[in-house]
Design goal:
This protein is mainly alpha-helical and 471 residues long. It has a single domain, classed as MFS general substrate transporter like domains (Growth Hormone, Chain: A, Up-down Bundle), CATH 1.20.1250.20. The protein is built from 18 helices and no strands.
Length: 471
């Protein structure tokens, strides 16, 4: 059954944190931002780590794969947990438990222990599924695409911010406090882990599962399906071919982003002969596009949905993915910095718009198993990153690896045409979309009437004062 009282406006209520939907939106993107920051926090410091632990190119490649491999399984589990116990408890647990390997990586002393902690840290990448789930249950169909895209995009922004912030934190410990480089990168990760742990506590107290309360309360009132139905719905969702198509598609956009986040700093350092901070700044340009790019993908997804229904959302997804593949191939051929950077930015724009477009489709696949769908599709991103990671651990040059990935993405874009919806679902979602827009207009009319009445009251008050006889 459909949850009620979802927010029908995001930007119009953006600062109204008294609304649980808006407060949850801000908590989800901030929590995901910190998780993404920690997930790839070690990437811009890998030059230091590589030298200290004497890692080979092959071993660096395995750490890239390891950082995203465990997330595949974590996202599948997290989606099920969201449906069963709710996003609030799931996120709280993930943040607080995930903080320990982030801080614990400082104990690594060789390749094996470093890889072990890198694997464990990857579990916090499952935070993406909770972020998308939580905004999906809080926002109505007319804005769910942009709400999902913005919360995820601003969270992914952590992957860009970490590229230049972590070298700065590292520099503070080394240059400011005089620690050695070997201690500096370890202390830097401990700072991030502590921040994640504190955010987990805040998430528990400042959010709730749905607009009308937590899942336990809603189930007690008969407003949600019982827990025992969750597993059955999960397996039914896995039998839907559209879920697996989106699994592949998300691997071709988010999987590529994860790969670039893990490799960009080293790529610019090795291929363009840049220092640690300079390479980090170049790599950050890719992630920083999340400020608006993924949001654009969601906004256009909602607009295409308004014009052409659910099939319009799928067509917009094709456009983004196709352009991403072309832009990635272009970037792979750039061998001078002043050409490589602009092509990286264009490539980043379409990559993140494709991610936003994907999750403007996901909420409409199976509403009874939203966690399952979000989890499987999200896992596809990491599966794509794992497969892409093998290209960067072999003998192939990294620019050629990017070229191959661009070709794969271009071909995968045509899968979007196979994400289809029944005429009945198209009509149902069209009605829901219209209802949400009517609710938005009603809220705006109520606000305008309230402002009009307040204005008239002020005018009447002034008129009464002018009528009073002079004393």
């Amino acid at each position: 059954m459909e949850l009620q009282h979802k927010a029908t406006s995001l930007w119009g209520n953006f600062f109204k944190v008294t609304m649980v939907q808006i407060r949850t939106f801000h908590m989800t993107w901030f929590a995901f931002f910190l998780c993404f920051f920690a997930w790839f926090g070690i990437a811009p410091l890998m030059k230091v780590v590589r030298d200290e632990l004497q890692l080979t190119k092959d071993q660096v490649g395995w750490t890239i794969i390891g950082s995203v491999a465990i997330t595949i399984f974590a996202r599948l589990l997290i989606g099920w947990l969201c449906d069963r116990i709710g996003p609030r408890l799931t996120y709280t647990g993930l943040l607080m438990l995930g903080a320990f390997p982030v801080m614990g990586i400082g104990l690594a002393h060789n390749f094996e222990t470093f890889l072990l902690f890198r694997l464990a840290i990857g579990a916090i990448g499952a935070s993406f599924v909770i972020t998308q789930y939580h905004t999906s249950v809080m926002f109505a169909p007319n804005v769910v695409g942009q709400a999902n895209a913005t919360s995820a995009g601003w969270g992914n922004l952590g992957g860009g911010v970490t590229q230049f912030v972590m070298p700065l934190i590292f520099s503070v410990f080394v240059l400011g406090f005089g620690f050695s480089e070997a201690i500096g990168w370890r202390l830097s990760m401990m700072v991030v882990g502590a921040a994640i742990f504190c955010t987990g506590i805040a998430y528990y107290f400042w959010t709730q599962d749905a607009p009308d309360g937590n899942f336990s309360e809603l189930r007690a009132k008969g407003l949600m399906p019982a827990k025992k139905t969750v597993t059955g719905n999960y397996w039914r969702a896995l039998a839907d071919g559209r879920v697996w198509i989106l699994f592949v598609i998300y691997g071709a956009c988010f999987g590529i982003e994860l790969t670039v986040n893990n490799t960009a700093a080293l790529y610019f350092a090795d291929y363009f002969d840049l220092g640690l901070v300079e390479a980090g700044l170049m790599a950050a340009c890719f992630g920083l596009m999340n400020i608006f790019a993924r949001t654009l993908g969601g906004i256009f997804g909602d607009n295409y949905g308004a014009l052409w229904g659910l099939r319009g959302r799928a067509f917009w997804l094709f456009i983004c993915l196709f352009c991403e593949g072309l832009a990635l191939m272009l970037f792979s051929r750039m061998n001078v910095l002043f050409l490589a950077l602009p092509s990286l930015i264009v490539f980043s724009l379409f990559t993140q718009m494709a991610e936003g477009a994907t999750y403007s489709v996901v909420p409409f696949i199976n509403k009874k198993a939203l966690g399952a769908v979000a989890g499987v599709v999200g896992a596809g991103g990491n599966a794509g990153a794992v497969l892409a990671g093998f290209l960067f651990k072999g003998a192939i040059d990294w620019n050629d690896a990017f070229l191959i990935l661009g070709m794969v993405v271009t071909v995968a874009s045509f899968l979007a045409f196979f994400v289809r919806f029944s005429p009945e679902q198209e009509e149902e979602e069209k009605a829901n979309f219209v209802e949400a827009n009517i609710e938005t207009l009603r809220a705006r009319a109520d606000k305008a009437m309230k402002e009009f009445e307040e204005g008239m009251a002020v005018i009447r008050s002034r008129q009464e004062k002018t009528r009073e006889p002079a004393q």
